[in-house]
C-alpha cells in the first residue's frame, strides 16, 4: 500500500495511491479518514493524483540519520567503518517533499546528494527487541540526506551541514508492504547516474538500526530513520535536478536553487 500526504484546494490530508501511469486515467488517491497510524478507513472519495500537490509523506518530530552505513561510501570520504552506528539528527524544519526546492545554503560552497532508504515509524516505541522491529514500522520512503560537505568537514559536527532548511527531501509516498533487505537504490543528477547500490550492502540492516536507536530514545509515529547512503555522493549546483529512486517505492525528485 502506498500512502501519500497531499494538499488540494488548501486542504491537507492522506490518501492511498491506487493504480499507475499505465492505467487509463492514471493513478488516483483514495482519501483516508483521519491519519494513517493504526487502523484507518478509506473514504471512497477518489482524486486524480495529478490534481493534487504531494507533500512530505510525514511531518516527523525528529529525523534520526545513520552515517557511514555503507563501507564504500565511508571509504570514498576517507573514513573508517565505525564500530557502532554513527547517529545524528536532522531537524523537522529540514524536511521538504517531492518537487520542493533544495535551497543552496549561503554558508556553503559544496552541496552533496546522498540517496537513502528512509524508515517511517508507525507507533510510539522504546527499547524495541529485534524480533519486534517490523511491528513498529509503518513503511518506507525515499530520502536525500543533502549535505553541505565543506561545512561538515570544517565544523567537525554535522548540525548545520545536514540540518539546514530543505536538507531532507522525503517522498513521494510511504510504501507499507516492502522487504527492505535488498532493494536497488540510485541517484541521478540531470539524468546522469551518480549513485547505484543495494540496501543489502548496508553494514547494519534496518532491524539493527532501530534496536540501536531505541535503546537511547523514544520514537514517535511519523518519525523517520535514514539508513545511510551508498557510494557515489557528489556535488549539486544551482539548477540541478536530483532524483532518488528506490526499488518498490518510486522516485523522489527535487530541484536545487539559490536563495534570493
UniProtKB/TrEMBL annotation:
GO BP field: carboxylic acid metabolic process
The record ties this protein, via SUPFAM superfamilies, to:
FAH
Question: Can you say what this protein is called?
Answer: 2-hydroxyhepta-2,4-diene-1,7-dioate isomerase
Please provide the record's keywords in A-Z order.
Isomerase, Metal-binding
List, alphabetically, the PANTHER family matched: ACYLPYRUVASE, ACYLPYRUVASE FAHD1, MITOCHONDRIAL
Taken from the record, one Pfam family name reads Rv2993c-like_N
Keyword Cytoplasm present in the record's keywords: the answer is no
Q: Which domain of life is it from?
A: Bacteria
List the Gene Ontology MF annotations in alphabetical order: acetylpyruvate hydrolase activity; isomerase activity; metal ion binding
Annotated Rv2993c-like N-terminal domain residues: 1-57
Ranges where the Fumarylacetoacetase-like C-terminal domain occurs: 62-256
Key word Phosphoprotein present in the record?
A: no
Amino acid at each position: 500500500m502506498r500512502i501519500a500526504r497531499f494538499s488540494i484546494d488548501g486542504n491537507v490530508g492522506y490518501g492511498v495511491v491506487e493504480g499507475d501511469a499505465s492505467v487509463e486515467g492514471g493513478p488516483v488517491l483514495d482519501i483516508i479518514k483521519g491519519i494513517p497510524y493504526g487502523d484507518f478507513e478509506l473514504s471512497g472519495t477518489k482524486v486524480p493524483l495529478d490534481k493534487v500537490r504531494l507533500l512530505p509523506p510525514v511531518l516527523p518530530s525528529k529525523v534520526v540519520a545513520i552515517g557511514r552505513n555503507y563501507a564504500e561510501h565511508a571509504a570514498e570520504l576517507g573514513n573508517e567503518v565505525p564500530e557502532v552506528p554513527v547517529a545524528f539528527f536532522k531537524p523537522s524544519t529540514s524536511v521538504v517533499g517531492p518537487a520542493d526546492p533544495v535551497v543552496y545554503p549561503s554558508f556553503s560552497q559544496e552541496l552533496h546528494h546522498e540517496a537513502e532508504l528512509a524508515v517511517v515509524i508507525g507507533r510510539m516505541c522504546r527499547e524495541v527487541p529485534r524480533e519486534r522491529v517490523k511491528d513498529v514500522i509503518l513503511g518506507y520512503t525515499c530520502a536525500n540526506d543533502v549535505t553541505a560537505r565543506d561545512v561538515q568537514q570544517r565544523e567537525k559536527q554535522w548540525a548545520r551541514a545536514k540540518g539546514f532548511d530543505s536538507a531532507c527531501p522525503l517522498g513521494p509516498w510511504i510504501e507499507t508492504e516492502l522487504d527492505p533487505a535488498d532493494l536497488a537504490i540510485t541517484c541521478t543528477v540531470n539524468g546522469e547516474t551518480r549513485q547505484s547500490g543495494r540496501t543489502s550492502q548496508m553494514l547494519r540492516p534496518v532491524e539493527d538500526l532501530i534496536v540501536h536507536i531505541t535503546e537511547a530514545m523514544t520514537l514517535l509515529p511519523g518519525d523517520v530513520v535514514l539508513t545511510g547512503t551508498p557510494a557515489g555522493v557528489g556535488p549539486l549546483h544551482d539548477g540541478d535536478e536530483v532524483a532518488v529512486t528506490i526499488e518498490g517505492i518510486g522516485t523522489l525528485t527535487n530541484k536545487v536553487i539559490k536563495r534570493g
